[in-house]
Amino acid sequence: MKQTRIFLLAITILLFAFQPAQAVSGAPLPLVLVMNIDGPIAPAVQEYLARSIKLAGQQGAELLILQLNTPGGGIDTMNNMLQDMRASQVPIVVYVAPRGAMAGSAGTVITLAGHASAMAPETIIGAASPVGGQGEDLGETLKAKEMEALKATVRTLTERRGAQAVQLAEDTIEKARAVSASEALQAGLVDFVATDINDLLAKLDGFTVVTVEGERSLHTAGAVIETIPMTLIESILQMLTNPNVVFILLSIGVQAIFIELSSPGGWVAGFIGVVCLAFAGYGMGVLTVNWFGLLFLVIAFVLFIVDIKAPTHGALTAAGIGSFIVGALVLFNSPGTPQFQKVSMPLVILIGILTGAMFAFIIGLALRAQKVPVRTGHESMVGRDGVASSDITFSGQVQLGGELWTAELAGGSDPVCKGDRVKVVKVVGLHLVVKKTDNI
Length: 440
What we know:
Blueprint: H1 2-17, H2 21-25, E1 31-38, H3 43-58, E2 63-69, H4 75-86, E3 92-96, E4 102-104, H5 106-113, E5 116-119, E6 124-126, H6 140-158, H7 163-174, E7 178-180, H8 181-187, E8 192-193, H9 197-204, E9 208-211, E10 214-217, E11 224-228, H10 232-239, H11 243-262, H12 268-286, H13 292-309, H14 315-332, H15 345-371, E12 385-388, E13 395-400, E14 403-409, E15 421-428, E16 431-436
């Protein structure tokens, strides 16, 4: 027993002796959270940022890295994001990446709002001149107001960076100037050019930032990196800022609603239509659209439906395809609309042709249905053959379709004997008018 105790004590001593130095010291590694914005600045992105800032505070993160690649977005959404960023107690580093990315328009101001900022090689920043909600140039007075407000914002965000950085930031607003990563670094507009997250963390170690709580030196050596993904709802809402997705949802929604109206009684088409139109409505509220194009889309589907109800051998369907394509282009691709908010023209043409083809197929079914002989009612009995159940000189009885009918002899017909085959000429009330046919 004594030997066993000595053996266990020796094992315990050895285990403690070979513990890693960090475990003995108990010093935790710094935590760095990374979020990724890749696409237009939209309300879903704002919610994503606010949630990430809150999560970084709850987990005691050393800093939050906002990896950014955006062509721009709404000024109101941008201003809300700036307020969240500047009020954050956790330092936020905006990193324009990966290679080939851009911080355009509103993305420029968001980059400058970070407590530190960096860019990957081969990225650009700038072109932040304001435009109207429909992508058009603003009026002279309104443009002056918006531009001066944005210039004041970027001056506030870059005054610590020096006169050259302030001037470049104002030029991105006033002259829509864009610069490369190296040019931005040379002017002091950003703090670092880093090839990747690890390179960025190495350069940030020991760097001093100023938050709402004052100056703070960053400690990022050996940091643990964790990514904050978008939630499902945030991802769906962000996806709805894609004009191609919105266009497809709008096409399906309007088409489903018209199908429901033309053939009421079901609920599947109507439900799908309402859901698709609700999503499309959200997307169009975020995107730059010309609402006049919606009128052409409605006209297109009206023409498709009318061609089904009153077939014109495809003439209205062809007109509907033309109206559909024009409507989509007017809705999303009006002059002045930012390039990233324009719908793909091949997609518009393809959807227009497929929609027209579907309605043309329905029209074809309707035309064929008109040529099918009537199979119910009195009209369906005319021309059918039966067998006389009695002699018919003026009236008698006929066996037809398993039923016994009172029959009258048609004028000009030969007398009918029992067992002869007869053909129905017409139906008068509950009586058949028949004539004798050749017996087989």
